[in-house]
Amino acid sequence: xxxxxxxxxxCRSKCAYCDFxxxxxxxxxxxxxxxxxxxxxxxxxxAYSGRFATVYVGGGTPSVLPPGxxxxxxxxxxxxxxxxxxxxxxxxxDDITPGVAATLRxxxxxxxxxxxxSLVDAELTAISRRHDAMGAIAAIAMLRxxxxxxxxxDLMYGLxxxxxxxxxxxxxxxxxxxxxxISAYLLSYEPGTRLTRxxxxxxxxxxxxxxxxxxxxxxxxxxxxxxxxxxxxxNFARPGRRSRHNSSYWNPAVAYLGLGPSAHSYDGxxxxxxNVASVRRYLAAPAHASDPExxxxxxxxxxxxxxxxxxxxxxxxxxxxxxxxxxAEPMMRRAKPWIxxxxxxxxxxxxxxxxxxxxxxxxxxxxxxAD
Length: 371
Ligand code: SF4
Prior knowledge:
The protein is of the alpha/beta class. The protein folds into 2 domains: about 1-250, pyruvate-formate lyase- activating enzyme (Alpha-Beta Horseshoe), CATH 3.80.30; about 300-370, Arc Repressor Mutant, subunit A, CATH 1.10.10.920. It has helices at about 30-45, 65-80, 100-105, 120-125, 135-145, 165-175, 195-200, 210-225, 245-250, 280-285, 300-310, 325-340, 360-370; strands spanning about 1-10, 10, 25, 50-60, 80-90, 110-115, 150-155, 180-185, 230, 235, 255-260, 265, 270-275, 295, 320, 345, 350-355. The strands form 4 sheets. It has a 9-stranded mixed beta sheet. Strands 12-13-14 form a 3-stranded antiparallel beta sheet, with no helix packed on it. Strands 15-17-16 form a 3-stranded antiparallel beta sheet. Iron/sulfur cluster binds next to loops.
């Protein structure tokens, strides 16, 4: 089983918090870009046996591609996937029209991940999102009307000007739309972003640790009551609606092929590849985007740390009996204080981070790593 990822590093405008590598959509030659991705697919496809179980087109903003080109791309990807494959495209609400939604569905898309972030207009303005709350709600309706019934929405908390009441309102409005899946992230202030400059200049303030914890508790409690399963640090799903593609990233035995500039690939054992991170260089030679100098063979220590990092992100946890014993024994000694405090739970050899402690998972992991 393997997954297929395609990266579309273009956005119509820059969101105030975002430090991802992306180019202005006006510089995009969509036909040339889709041609390049399909060239790379043809060149690298044979290294992955069988049809892909999941396809994910992410970005950036894939929905900046003109509908015809996006449809051409997804149709070609879907032809390499199993008939029951999960085929996801990330979209921004303001790109969705009835025509775009119909094109997505006709090309094989059966899941959409939408960057909603908030359903309070002042908060969306504060982070330079192009849509408003009504636009996001309308986009969900258009996708459903077109027959796309598996919809995931991203939410953010700790936003400038956000309060517990306004966050509760966003959650309530979102739950009214009953998305199948919700990904929720604490705003982080990354170097070089407009929000970080505003923070440094004292124009806005950052949520304190207590406030962040309060938002997180509210999120977990409300979504639990609404029937969502909290199955990964940032991800909540209705029963049967976990993201199959993302779940495969958390399973070290699943290979994935990444296409497009800066996309990563993994062979399901110990080899990772990173594509060139430049659109210009990618377009010049897409079939050679991941030539050997960009390959990495993971050491036993790195593989052990990956297993920890991936397993402890999820509610399913990590089966410690399957870990490399050279590193597992000292790790278990370091884990003892975390187990005593209740942050880590060990049950029948399966280790999990308790839901309450997922906010400090990074600190726990750095204590457990072998490398
Ligand atoms: S649309 Fe997404 S990738 Fe593009 S700038 Fe906004 S957050 Fe970043």
